[in-house]
Amino acid sequence: MNTAKAQLHLIHGGSYTQREAAIAASLSRLPAALSNVVILEGLPDGQDILLPGDNLHISRIAPGCFCCIGNLSLRVTLNRALRQKPAHIFLGVASDAHLDQLTLTLQEPAYANLLEISSQSRL
């Protein structure tokens, strides 16, 4: 049984395309055999840069501050992603307005044994 925590990479700010490109660049530096999940807030504003595959699962969540909408869409999507036991989860959010609250949510007991926030990048 794999008990390793998923490494969470939080990317915020910039446009949807900039966040997607930053995530694609990070993924290109990881071994292709790793299972990874990408969760992007917002709707694509052009051609998708990331495409799902055997080891890459992509979820897109409609725009809206996760904190202000009660984190429900994020929690459901994140819980589904964690069931896949990914090595890395990339979370791209549009605004850093409530980043502290989002970080606290990701550190709650429900996620403490499953996630480790390993990086934050502002675009």
Key descriptive features of the protein:
123 residues, alpha/beta, Rossmann fold, 5-stranded parallel sheet, 29% helix, globular
Q: How many domains is the backbone divided into? A: 1
Beta-strand segment tally: 5
Proportion of strand residues: 25-35%
User: Number of DSSP helices?
Assistant: 4
Q: Could you give a short account of the major beta sheet?
A: 5 strands, parallel
CATH class bucket: Alpha Beta
Helix-residue proportion: 25-40%
Outline the low-pLDDT stretches: none
Let me know the average pLDDT: 90
Indicate the CATH architecture.
Answer: 3-Layer(aba) Sandwich
- Report, as a whole number of angstroms, the end-to-end distance: 36 Å
Structural shape: globular
Order of helices and strands: EHEEHEHHE
Task: Give the radius of gyration.
Answer: 13 Å
Structural class computed from helices and strand pairing:
alpha/beta
Question: Largest sheet, order of strands side by side?
Answer: 3-2-4-1-5
* CATH fold-level name: Rossmann fold
Protein name: GTPase
Describe this structure in words.
The protein is an alpha/beta fold. The protein has a single domain, classed as Rossmann fold. The protein contains four helices and five strands; from the N terminus they run E-H-E-E-H-E-H-H-E. It has helices at about 15-30, 70-80, 100-105, 110, and strands spanning about 5-10, 35-40, 55-60, 90-95, 115-120. Strands 3-2-4-1-5 form a five-stranded parallel β-sheet, with helices on both faces. The longest helix is centred in the N-terminal third of the chain and has 13 residues, at about 15-30. The termini are far apart. The mean pLDDT is about 90.
